[in-house]
Please model this.
Amino acid sequence: MNLYELLKKHFGFHSFRKGQEEVIRSILSGQHTISVLPTGTGKSLCYQLPGYILNGTVIIVSPLLSLMQDQVEHLKINGEKRVVALNSFLNVNERKKIFRSLSEYRFIYISPEMLTNQLLLQSLKKLKVSLFVVDEAHCISQWGHDFRPDYLRLKEIRTVLGNPVTLALTATATEDVRNDIIQYLNLKNVTQLINSVDRPNISLVIEELSNKMNKINKLLELVKQLKKPGIIYFSSKRTSEEMAILLRKKGIANAAAYHGGMDQEQRILIQQQFLNNQLQVICATSAFGMGINKENIRFVIHFHMPYQIESYLQEIGRAGRDGNKSIAILLYTPGDEFIPLHMFEKELPSDNQIEKYYSLNIKGHHTADLMLSDVQSRFLSYYKGISENNNELILKVKSIRDIRIRYKQEKLKEMLHWIKEHRCRRLGILEYFNEVQSIPLMRCCDICGLNMNDFLSNDREWIENEKMNWQSMLSNLLLRGD
Ligand SMILES: [Zn+2]
Model:
């Protein structure tokens, strides 16, 4: 069977999306491959299709549990039974059972924290691994926006597995990040397939408002008028909730909040309602969006600025996956940058936490009273081994933390520069990734000029929306039972 027949048979598509076929051919020819494919272009197909050709197991390391579950479900719906996800959702017995029968699976998804499980490593050793996939590979790099120290163990794992053909996938990677990926995975002779980060069907707008009140009013106006569905990003959980309430008060009943502080059941419900078009507007933190396969998102608004251009691209990339015109609007008020600046300081462990953590650890005490966040404890636990001498360890870790904070500050500066620079928004982004703009676009950005009417909902849709409001209000009431 040729590639196209397999594509039709297993996935029901007649043609590849841009970039997919090159990646697949590279893997099939036995090349380690780094692929930069923009969000929403079907990265998973790049390893799933080869899974049906190669003789052996495909291992996929993915940092996002929701994304992992989503892809496993997708494969199952497409008729693939030999797929499993190894993550913290499994209890000890389920784990043991799966570890014993690993060779029965064609696709094994693994979360990074599972990679430290020695029992799993022993079982993986016995497999014939035909392809090793690292999804969201920018997480390897300390210069990547989602840096995950767990990912630094991947080099070891690859060695244990006998250096299998490896595919590193990411949506956005600067040259620094790509070099880190190669180094930390210990890849020799790598094919790099880099596609433009540009999504031409998404128009880019930045609007500066003089104060928060004006910004809120602008948001209300936009959300009322714009074609839906859409996502609004906030950097704080509280604001996302407050704004969802405000939107509902102002007549946009099909709006809801979504953030990492909500319990899982609630989050799944919101996600489902959004996917089923019962909800039209999501007020979210960056926790929302990964693994959301919704084709028709028409707008992404940033109420708060993302902390770096990479995150901005990832978030706006959720719009317009159907290829239809969509809009990304960033609302900026002078001073917005202080929120992330403050966050950078808080996110990683303080001097005090670093000192106490390592001293306590040595004496074998638990660290509960240090009140560490997930990120902080992952960070501290990862660097535990870099020095035998406790004082030296503390000094080194403090300096790693400081470098990381400075790096983030630099990234934020670049983001801010892009916001304030009054020239083509797209050009600024492309230059950041060392790309050149090919052809000027019709609806490029607010600087090049665009007609907002192109993005407003028409009357008929209004009526539909109103009807939907009604129904979703009713179903919300029924669901809540109050
Ligand atoms: Zn432009």
In short: The domain at 3-194 is CATH 3.40.50.300 (Rossmann fold).
